[in-house]
Every structure is written in structure tokens, then in C-alpha cells.
């Protein structure tokens, strides 16, 4: 009973096994370095095993991306091996005609899968043959469709149709790819193929990937368009013969622009505070009246950005321009310094949970923004008289 044992998955500690003779709950021993545990079956449970239910786990958690609360990580089972003498493993798959794998013009076509269960478990190639003698097709276009591997357990990668009793020629060589260069957002690979072939890129399907293809290193590139789904999840493109495939993650192009825009806005906020005159004005309001005049601003900020930002807005009403500037710089730079220092210290992995390590700093950044907003509103109000 093999499962992934790392910091990103919980591990099972008790399972219920059902087989011939009934069900029984057993404890899962501590796994070895490969995440494999050997579970001894009770004498009352006989093969074949029909189901395994995970009853108890050693939970590992990660902060939820949105709420920040701990989220229990899933269990990932890699393999269940009932032993070499398991009759199911040695069973020949070709004894069953499958009618849920292939359709032509939305009509199911029965096929035999040639090979054993052991071959399938070891990810060996399996051949197909028709259950019937042949399939009759009329002249014209026909639609051939295969089932999704995630639904039926088999991936049909290639279907060859040929006239009945025709001698099969030598199989077409399988296309080969070799990586020429690779980066975090860019990949270039050489494809060797004798004709049209589908190239699969094993990342989740996303139109952000742009693919271009050229026959040689000096020939012009052709845009392959948006990817289509292959293998149930990955990106796929149809290329014609050998050539050089280039992949680029286009959303990354916006990241430097967003960073530059963020820096520009931060500088503008600092300049906005610095431009306030540091001169003494007459007719200063009483603190009570000044607070009453500014409570609507603080209330709006409280609803949108939280209590710390609202408090910063109120305090801005009573402090000098220089103090407001220093407060903005401190609150604005503190999250940046903390994130950099924490990343250097703890080496958080670049996963979807990465922002969750720093969610508590959001309210500090909002407080800095509240200082700028309140200061700007006061500047436009001629009744605000303050040093």
C-alpha cells in the first residue's frame, strides 16, 4: 500500500479492506522512505480485494489561500499491490469486449485490449483489435472519438484504420522531441517526425501558452494558435513534420509592467504627502470638531480595508504632514522587508499556497494606502487647518 509521504499530503493511518469473506479495518504501519507500508490482511479477508476505504489519517495542513485558516491536505495513494500471486494481476484483458472506449459517428465500436492487467499497471503499450470482424463505413467524412483516460482508465493514443485483409505496412516511427533550451517561461524543442503529429506539453491546459513552429532555425515561424486538450489535461498542438517548437508563457510579460506600475504608484503616493506645505495656519479646529468632520472617511475605509486602515485614517487627521509621510513609508515598506526576509529564511516553495504565508500583512499595506487617501482628501478641503 504505497502513498506519497511529504509535507504536502496527509498520510493514512487506518483503512478498511473489503474482499471475499467480508471487511476488516487494519492499521497502516509507518511508511518507509518511499512512502510504502506493508499491511497484513486478516485471515478472514481473501483475494480478490474489492475496495479499500481510508478511515483515519495523520493530517497535515496548509493555510487556505482565501481565508487563511488551516486546510487539511489530501491523501495521495500511489499504488495498491495485492502480491504477485493475485489472480487479478495475471488476468488477460482480451477476454472482455469494451464498448466504452471508441465511437465512430457516435456509434460505440467494441474493441479488445490485448495484454494483461500487469502490463497495464506497468504502463506498457497495449494493442487494440475489433470485437467484430470489421466496421463498415460509407464514403465521406466520419467522426472518430475516444474516451477520456480519467473516466475509463485507458488512454487511447493512436488508432489505425485500414481496409479489411490489407497487408499492414511497417508502422510509422513515433515522433521524438529533444529540449534545446528551457527557462521558467520559455521552452524550445526540436521535433523529429515524418508527417503531421500532435505534440503534448505536460502542463495544465491554458491559452496563455503561445506556440510557434519553424521548419529550420533560419526559416520564419508559424503561430500554432491556442492549444487543445490532450491526455485529459495537457496542452497539445498539431505540427507538420520535423521542426523547432517554441513555447512562451505570455502572461509573464505583464509581470514586469505590473511591478513597475506598483513602484510608480508608491512613489506618487510619497510625493503627494511631501507636497503638503509644512506651514502653520491660523484658525485650527478643535480636535472634537475635526474628528466629527472626518468620521465618514474613516467609516468607508473601515468597511473596505478593515479596522487598522480606519485607525490610520483617523490618526492622519491629527498628525503633521511629515509624520504622515514617515508613517506611510514605514507601513508601506514593512511588508516588503518582511516578505523578503521570510523567503530568504524559510525558503517557502512557489506553490498556490505561497501568498498565504504573508496574508496578515495585507492590513498593514491597506493602512499605508489609507494615510495617502485621507491626506489627499484633506488637501482638497480648505477648512482643514493643521500644521
What gap, in angstroms, lies between the N and C termini? Answer: 73 Å
Tell me the number of helical segments per DSSP (H or I, 4 or more residues long). 7
Number-wise, the strands total 21
Please identify the structural class as seen in this structure.
Answer: alpha+beta
Residues in helix, %: 25-40%
Average pLDDT works out at 79
Radius of gyration over C-alpha positions, nearest whole angstrom? 32 Å
The poorly predicted ranges are: 276-290, 382-387
**What's the arrangement of strands in the largest beta sheet?**
14-15-21-17-18
Assembly classification: single chain
Q: Which percent band covers the strand fraction? A: 25-35%
Major sheet details: 5 strands, antiparallel
Shape: extended
The SSE string, one letter per element, is: EEEEEEEEEEEHEEHEEEEEEEEHHHHH
How would you explain this protein's 3D organization?
The protein is of the alpha+beta class. It contains seven helices and 21 strands. The strands form seven sheets. A five-stranded antiparallel beta sheet has the order 14-15-21-17-18, with no helix packed on it. Strand 19 and strand 20 (234-240) form a beta hairpin. The longest helix has 26 residues, at 321-346. Residues 276-290 and 382-387 have low confidence and may be disordered.
Provide keyphrases for this structure.
387 residues; disordered C terminus; 27% strand; alpha+beta; 3-stranded antiparallel beta sheet; extended
